[in-house]
């Protein structure tokens, strides 16, 4: 028996895929709605949380990681967690020096 003959293929139901698609559309609506609300420093965290949740849905259901070995799902979800934290901490760091910037200032402009 070759390696390809022993592989397991999972076929998702159309109903499940439509439910996930609706959840992704609701997530997109949340993203657009959240961009119109000023939450201060929480804007980046809310946006990252929504994007991470949508990416996890795509990975679990459209990439079939929900039915794959738990080892693969663990690393997929872990990668998104670390990406979420990395971008969040980078944005928090840049927030500390943003008030020191001069609005409209660009070196070399108007010389």
Give a topology summary.
Layout: H1 14-35, H2 42-62, H3 70-97
| Structural class determined from secondary elements | mainly alpha
Count structural domains: 1
Percent range of helical residues = 55-70%
Shape: elongated
The proportion of residues in beta strands is under 5%
Low-confidence stretches: none
The total strand number stands at: 0
Oligomer: single chain
List the helices and strands in order: HHH
Number of helices: 3
- Could you report the average pLDDT, rounded to the nearest whole number? 78
Distance between the termini: 74 Å
* Main sheet characteristics: none
* Rg (C-alpha, Å): 21 Å
What does this structure look like?
With 111 residues, this protein is mainly α. The chain has one domain (14-97). Helix content is 64%, strand content 0%. The protein has helices spanning 14-35, 42-62, 70-97. It starts with 13 loop residues before the first helix and ends in a 14-residue tail after the last helix.
Give me a quick take on this structure.
The chain has 111 residues and is mainly alpha-helical.
Which features characterize this protein?
111 residues, mainly alpha, 3 helices, 0% strand
């Amino acid at each position: 028996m070759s390696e390809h003959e022993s592989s397991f293929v999972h076929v998702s139901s159309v109903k499940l895929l439509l439910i996930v698609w609706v959840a992704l559309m609701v997530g997109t609506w949340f993203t657009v709605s959240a961009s119109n609300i000023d939450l201060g420093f929480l804007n980046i965290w809310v946006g990252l949380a929504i994007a991470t949740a949508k990416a996890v849905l795509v990975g679990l259901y459209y990439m079939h990681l929900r039915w794959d070995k738990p080892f693969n799902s663990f690393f997929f979800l872990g990668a998104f967690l670390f990406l979420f934290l990395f971008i969040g901490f980078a944005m928090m760091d840049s927030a500390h020096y943003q008030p020191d910037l001069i609005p409209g200032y660009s070196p070399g402009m108007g010389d």
